[in-house]
Amino acid sequence: MGKIKTVEILVRGDIIEKNIILKLADRLKESKLRADFSCSVTVPPFLKAVEKHYPSLAVLYATVDIEDLFQFKALLRDLCREEACSILSITEL
């Protein structure tokens, strides 16, 4: 890897129900981008959230090679668009 950039991403939507984190990991493997991430997901009380369609919130910390940063952001935006999730923020740390 070249120069590494850390990026904080906040995503809101049906993170658990639509398996967004696993889908992102699969796409990263397929893309061969030099990136990895850790994630924390906050879910409202689960049964009520499913019943009333309350969204979850995921905080991802990604380490991305600076050369792959724009492609990583595009991959994430495409996935969120397909799965009807919202990217609340992308912050380079």
Helix content, binned percent: 25-40%
Percent of residues in β-strands? 35-45%
Task: Calculate the mean pLDDT score and round it.
Answer: 91
Roughly how many Å apart are the termini?
18 Å
Secondary-structure element pattern, one letter each: EHEHEHE
- The total of helices stands at 3
Coarse structural class: alpha+beta
Strand order of the largest sheet: 2-3-1-4
Basic shape = elongated
The major pleated sheet works out as:
4 strands, antiparallel
Number of E-type strands: 4
The parts where pLDDT drops under 50 for at least 5 residues are none
Rg for CA atoms = 13 Å
Give a verbal description of the structure.
The chain has 93 residues and is of the alpha+beta class. Helices cover 35% and strands 38% of the residues.
Which features does this protein show?
alpha+beta; 3 helices; 4-stranded antiparallel β-sheet; elongated; 35% helix; 4 strands; single chain
Per-chain topology:
Layout: E1 4-13, H1 20-31, E2 35-42, H2 46-52, E3 56-65, H3 69-82, E4 86-92
Antiparallel strand pairs: 1-3, 1-4, 2-3
Helix pairs in contact: 1-3
Brief rundown of the structure:
Helices cover 35% and strands 38% of the residues. The chain has 93 residues and is α+β, with helices and mostly antiparallel strands.
